[in-house]
Write a structure and sequence with these properties.
Largest sheet of chain C: 6 strands, mixed
Helix content of chain C: 25-40%
Oligomer: heterotrimer
Number of helices of chain C: 21
Strand content of chain B: under 5%
Largest interface: A-B, 61 and 64 residues
Number of domains of chain C: 2
Chains: A mainly alpha, B mainly alpha, C alpha/beta
């Protein structure tokens, strides 16, 4: 007989909330990675909230009290991260960029979450022709180069360039189109698994209506992996938004600060050795994606009891 | 319908050898609906907003002129007729023409080789780095070395390829001056290579065939930075992919069983756990091709690598939607074909499908 | 350094002295084995028996240091003259496979699915010796022949999925023989196998001792297997050794209370039991609760695979108050039939009438009104309950669906009374499923199935995931409830002894067909069909002397032509 130690489950309470539970149930390196990720993400969220107080200039400001900003000015006391070819202040644009990125991610992930989870649940639970059609569609979208699809969708929605909110919205929709199939696939697979569990079959045997089984038994038990896919998709969303901006299908620079656009302009700067226009917004992308991914990867490890293990050092002899 | 344990152990476990052939055939037939869905999706998405002529010329032409152009190009017909027409053209291998009147299949052949060359070197680099590191991290999981490799892999994934490209250019081209800033080769080299008989368009192959050190050096020095940028991005994905799958096969009873027979740890990792892990790895790596195509657009734009991605970005910027629609539809076909090939390869690794 | 010697003169192959194994877990160190002393002599089969959590598997894995990294081992293990716990790295690797070899519980996961079996055998040999490819292959063929795999020259190139469960276990045993290891550690080697296959594999294990002179440490929970194979028996409980004795002595006069209890819990095949489990005989006059006429259930094949005929032309009926036992090995279709009667799977041929409703082609709408009359108990107590709901809520669910007239207080009272019926304290209703033991959960599952006082109860292997002592209790509760409530029941099991304890009539299934159907007493006492005879003869009984005679009878049966 295998000696499986049952995972003691916490009673409901605030410590049972996904991320909190994970922090409490982690150890060593996994905990370190999780906390590092959380610190990065929370720090960036804080910057976004406090941007009006932290940024010396607005995102599209090209002149100050002392006249127009210099172009391509290296970092100095006036412009601590220098200025761009158009005369924007790099520091201010990088800070304001956090807002654009986080807002887009928030909208994209919540849209994909609602639609993807809803469709996945219904499709997996009820099956039938609707399920087969949805699976085929999801597989097709999944197989398609995601960035291309996002570009095409964003062109259709906004014609390429647009205002702040319109740009964020079209980027968010473009990103959602890519991620709905991912949520759909994961949730559908889990629904199928839960559906075959004896406790769901038990409810079917005594005649519980199907919609009630779905609500009471299936929904509650399929949400386990959702925190993980949220973080993974958030990371992908940030990268997709930046790529759209980089290719010129993002948000107009006068409407909002967006790191991908800034990097696009910075590519040309590199040949003359101007580094500050690219390094700062680029690093901002890396840090945000890094933070979100660290959280996601640690959540995966900690949730999986096979991956969550402790080691006793020097076990050979005692 | 769920399969209960009762049916799994059905009698007649010895299946015919012909089942691989049947599997391949069925999988092959599955390409057609997939392609149909993909190209239809492209059509629907591209045409939701309107027709390509209004999109690219709108505002520059008078209403009458526009009307005339639309009638000429057939964009005034019912959408369903246009759709069937479009499918018919695709079936004949006609992917349309660009506004500067190039056949899109021509564009593909001219610039596809450049993208292929970049993708092959980047893919090789990704495998050479990703697979061993992933295996190492899986075996040493939760130790400091694993954490270091994982953070590096996440970093490789978190860095957009155009930012990595920008940093590489800054360091190796501008500050150190070791490597060129962009392009596939210097103009002189490109002219020399264009004149050799039977040029393949793959510059590294052509240069090696000439045997001239200056040409070979020039071509490879241009290749290094783009291949590294795209390769590192993909390597990060591979490390994570290999690590996750190897962790699950390393914990399988058959690995413990082999260990109990005295099989060396290195062999357990490299053979006993690696081979079964390859099945999901190959499948996902195939899907990564779609991601590489996306990455190629960005890499090629960053390094002015005149490939399909670079051209696509150019057509997008010029709002040439017929060209975009054609290239995208063609890419869809390539993706569907690749996924088919990947599944066949996976079937060859997995004897449970083969027999 | 002193070398321990046993009374038999020659040193034991294996000796454990004061071995303690602990695991570091989230909640501190858990000791799985405490102060164990055990020896295995040359050519001896020692059985290590115990229920789940007794530490027997951990002990087996500790011998070759095949334990997770969070384990700490103290004490002394001497294997073939080597102090195992002092070894590490290359020395330990060379010991594995050559001094002792292991046979695992689940042959389908102990073999690597992507390599041919011959390659896997040869790979183990090559880990210890330099040997050419052709020579290694010849050795593999030879080993496969030794363990009785038919056509070894051909099958050496087979992949594991091309072999049956019994054949796979033979391959695993062949691997254990490959390096002439003196000790074979067999961890539940027949638990995953059907009873007829188990009998064959036990034969192979016996030959390890008789023909090859090996010693075997046999880990098992099955007292029948112990009686069949072992020379000496060590009984473990909660990580400690309770009793060690020769096999005949242990079964004849168990010294320890726990051993006695364990032996008493084992269901016996009472051929002429004849004792009815319920006072009132089934009402044969009343219309039957279930009638199957030529019932067939076929599952469509996936992606070019042929369809699976799970049930073919099966006819039976269940009278009110009657318990029908369905017995069969894996793939026999017994579970599929029970699921069809519960309305979880649709019949594809013939006719199936449950409580007067034809199920073939019926819609969920037609079946729904009957559902409150049908109760179902599942095999696996771990997954039978929604982990997010309390036991009380789970048991109350059928009532909430069908008895809307009940107030919350009445509902709670009803839940308390059904829990009481299955001898669970109503205080448990606030607990979550994972906080209950397997036996408690299975009784709660019974309570949920009976909450609406159904006319028909279907139990699909309700005790096969439980330890024997727990199984005895659940069966007792089942019999008692049946006496009180006299529902009709279909009881699915692979264990003939269990069916003998609960069923009025028994149906024997094989490959989706009903082979034999009749009153339990007569089927078990004088089976008419050859398959039933084999099934009965193959099941080992917990009595070494009786088992020896049964074994000869079984050997005679299977050696008969046809």
């Amino acid at each position: 007989m295998a000696t499986v130690v049952q995972e003691p489950r916490q009673r409901r309470g605030w410590t049972d909330l996904p991320v909190v539970w994970h922090v409490r149930h982690s150890a060593g390196l996994q905990r370190g990675m999780l906390i590092a990720g959380l610190v990065l993400v929370l720090g960036i969220v804080l910057v976004a909230v406090l941007a009006p107080f932290l940024a010396p200039y607005s995102h599209a400001q090209m002149s100050g009290a002392a006249g127009p900003f210099p172009r391509h000015a290296p970092p100095s006391g006036e412009h601590i991260w220098g200025t761009t070819v158009g005369g924007y202040d790099v520091f201010s644009r990088t800070l304001w960029g956090t807002r654009t990125a986080l807002l887009t991610v928030l909208m994209a992930v919540s849209a994909s979450l609602v639609l993807g989870v809803g469709l996945g649940l219904v499709s997996g639970f009820f099956g039938g022709p609707l399920d087969r059609v949805l699976v085929m569609l999801a597989d097709a979208v999944y197989a398609f180069p995601a960035l291309l699809l996002a570009i095409v969708v964003s062109i259709v929605i906004s014609g390429g360039q647009s205002s702040y909110f319109g740009g964020v919205l079209s980027a968010a929709i473009a990103i959602s189109v890519i991620f709905i199939p991912q949520f759909f696939r994961v949730v559908r697979a889990e629904t199928l698994q839960v559906k075959a569990e004896p406790f769901v079959e038990a409810a079917r045997v005594f005649g519980m209506p199907r919609t009630r089984i779905l609500r009471r038994h299936v929904l509650r038990n399929t949400t386990r992996s959702i925190p993980l896919i949220i973080t993974l998709n958030a990371a992908e969303s940030i990268l997709t938004l930046a790529a759209l901006g980089f290719l010129g299908f993002g948000i107009d620079p006068t409407a909002a600060a967006e790191w991908g656009y800034d990097l696009n302009r910075a590519v040309a700067d590199t040949s003359s050795g101007i580094w500050w226009t690219g390094v700062f917004p680029g690093s901002a992308i890396v840090l945000l994606v890094l933070g979100v991914t660290l959280v996601g990867e640690s959540l995966t490890d900690i949730s999986d009891p096979r991956l969550r293990r402790r080691r006793h050092r020097g076990r050979k002899k005692a | 319908m769920t399969v209960t344990p009762d049916q799994v152990e059905s009698p007649g476990r010895l299946r015919g050898v012909g089942s691989l052939g049947r599997y391949v055939l069925l999988r092959f037939l599955l390409i057609f609906p997939t392609v149909l869905i993909l190209v239809s999706m492209v059509f629907v998405v591209m045409r939701v907003a309107g027709d390509p002529i209004t999109a690219s010329m709108g505002g520059r032409l008078t209403a009458e002129q526009l009307e005339q152009r639309l009638t000429e190009a057939g964009y005034n017909r019912p959408i369903l007729v246009q759709y069937l027409d479009y499918l018919g053209d695709l079936a004949r291998g006609d992917f349309g023409r660009t506004t500067d009147n190039q056949a899109i299949t021509e564009v593909l052949i001219t610039y596809g080789t450049a993208t292929l060359e970049l993708a092959v070197y980047a893919g090789l680099l990704a495998m050479l780095i990703g697979i061993p590191l992933g295996r190492f991290a899986a075996y040493h999981r939760d130790r400091a070395s694993d954490a270091v490799f994982r953070v590096l892999a996440i970093l490789a994934y978190a860095t957009p390829v155009f930012f990595a490209g920008l940093l590489l250019k800054l360091v190796f081209s501008v500050w150190l001056g070791w490597l060129p800033l962009g392009g596939r080769a210097s103009t002189q080299t490109q002219i020399s290579l264009g004149t050799i008989p039977g040029a393949s368009g793959l510059l590294t192959v052509d240069a090696l065939r000439t045997g001239r050190a200056d040409l070979i050096g020039d071509v490879f020095s241009h290749l290094v930075l783009p291949a590294v940028a795209l390769g590192l991005l993909t390597a990060g994905v591979f490390v994570r992919l290999v690590r996750t799958n190897m962790i699950s096969t390393l914990s399988m009873p058959y690995v413990d069983a082999a260990r109990s027979r005295g099989v060396r740890e290195s062999r357990l990792v490299r053979t006993h756990a690696y081979r079964p892990a390859l099945i999901p790895i190959v499948t996902v790596m195939g899907m990564q091709l779609a991601l590489m195509l996306g990455g190629a657009i960005l890499t090629e734009t960053t390094f002015e690598w005149r490939g399909l991605g670079f051209e696509l970005a150019r057509y997008l910027a010029a709002r040439d939607y017929v060209a975009v629609q054609g290239i995208v539809a063609l890419l869809a076909v390539i993706v569907a074909l690749t996924n088919f090939l990947v599944d066949v390869v996976a079937a060859f690794i997995d004897p449970r499908v083969r027999y | 350094m002193t070398q321990e010697r046993t009374s038999e003169g020659a040193g034991p192959v294996l000796s454990l002295e004061q071995v303690t194994v602990g695991f570091d877990t989230d909640s501190g160190v858990v000791e799985a084995v405490r102060g164990l002393d055990l020896q295995v002599g040359r050519g001896e089969i020692v059985a290590l028996v115990g229920e789940s959590g007794s530490g027997k598997t951990v002990t087996a894995h500790t011998i070759l240091q095949m334990v997770p990294e969070n384990a700490r081992i103290t004490g002394r293990i001497t294997l073939a003259g080597a102090d195992v716990l002092s070894l590490s790295g290359e020395d330990l690797r060379l010991l594995r496979g050559s001094a002792a070899a292991m046979v695992f519980q689940e042959p389908s996961t102990a073999l690597n699915p992507v390599f041919p079996i011959g390659w896997q055998i040869a790979d183990g040999i090559r880990a210890h010796q330099r040997i050419g490819r052709r020579a290694a292959r010849a050795r593999a063929v030879d080993l496969l022949r030794k363990v009785g795999l038919p056509d070894p020259e051909q099958r050496v190139d087979f992949y594991p999925h091309q072999l049956s469960g019994g054949q796979k276990q033979r391959v695993v045993i062949a691997m254990a023989l490959a390096l002439d290891a003196q000790l074979i550690i067999a961890d539940e080697p027949t638990t995953a196998l059907d009873v007829t296959v188990q009998a064959e594999v036990l034969e192979v294990l016996r030959r390890l001792r008789d023909d090859f002179g090996r010693s075997v440490l046999l880990i098992t929970h099955n007292m029948g297997v112990v009686a069949d194979l072992a020379d000496r028996v060590a009984v473990m409980r909660h990580g400690e050794l309770v009793e060690v004795a020769d096999v005949a002595d242990l079964f004849a006069q168990p010294r320890h209370d726990y051993t006695r209890e364990l032996l008493a819990s084992v269901p016996r095949l009472r051929a002429a039991a004849g004792e009815p489990i319920r006072s009132t005989p089934p009402n044969a006059e009343a219309p039957p609760v279930v009638v199957a006429e030529g019932l067939a259930i076929t599952f469509p094949g996936r992606l070019g695979r042929p369809a699976v005929h799970a049930v073919r032309h099966v006819s039976f009926s269940v009278a009110p108050g009657e318990v029908l036992g369905l017995v069969g090995e894996s793939g026999s279709g017994k579970t599929t039939i029970s699921r069809a009667v519960a309305g979880l799977v649709g019949p594809t041929g013939g006719s199936l009438t449950v409580l007067g409703q034809e199920f073939r082609g019926a819609r969920e709408r037609d079946i729904r009104p009957l559902r409150q009359q049908i109760g179902f108990v599942f095999q696996d107590p771990a997954t039978s309950f929604n982990p997010k709901l309390s036991i009380g809520d789970c048991v109350a669910e059928p009532l909430r669906v069908h008895r809307r007239d009940l107030t919350e207080a009445q509902l709670r009272a009803r839940v308390a009374s059904v829990l009481d019926m299955v001898q669970l304290s109503p205080a448990l209703s606030g607990r979550f499923p994972h906080e209950l033991s397997g036996g408690q959960r299975q009784r709660a599952s019974l309570a949920r199935a009976l909450a609406l006082d159904p006319a028909l109860l279907i139990a699909d292997e309700p005790t096969s995931a439980l330890d024997v002592s727990v199984q005895a209790r659940v069966l007792e509760v089942f019999a008692e409830l049946h006496r009180e409530l006299s529902f009709a029941a279909i009881f699915v099991t692979h264990d003939l002894a269990v069916v003998g304890m609960v069923a009025d009539r028994v149906g024997v299934l094989r490959d989706g067909r009903l082979v034999e159907l009749g009153p339990t007493a007569s089927v078990l006492a004088s089976p008419q069909e050859e398959y039933t005879q084999q099934l009965l003869a193959a099941a080992p009984v917990p009595d070494p002397a009786e088992q020896a005679t049964r074994r000869t009878r079984w050997q005679a049966l299977v050696s008969q032509p046809g």
